[in-house]
Amino acid sequence: MNTLIAVRRFAHNHDDLPAFHASYLVLTIIAAAMLNLGAFALLIIAHMVLDYVKYREVHKYSWALTIEGMIRESLVDVAIFIVGLVFAVYFHHSSLIVGASGVLRSEITIARALGTIIPKFAILHNFLSVALQVRNYIRHPHPDLRTHWSAIDLLCFTIVAVGVLLL
Question: Do 71 and 142 form a contact (C-beta atoms < 8 A)?
């Protein structure tokens, strides 16, 4: 019974513990480093399915508003994913250049690692924040729904377009 009380107390107070936030970030970085980009594509797809349920089935929005909501909720993740994919593809093939020195190969390896781990970390962090508060997430539509696309949204669309062209 004491264990149940301790777990319940932790569940209520975990947001106030700096050690929890530090361990959460470290575990997220480790998971991002270990998983490949395909796993993060699946996370984005799962997030979009949740958005479909949120807008179409819970809020009873039209197809147009449902698609807009799905795009608004996942646009940043898709843009970050495309950046990671571009880094993975370009630096994977570049590291096979014959005659490249060891220093150049190590720099390419570091750039590839940073270019893929940072986007994977951001996607995983966003997905986990939604998953940990799924009830609250489902209840509230995106605040910018039915408004014009913001500068950040347009930047994300540009990043996606450039990334697709590069691929």
Answer: no
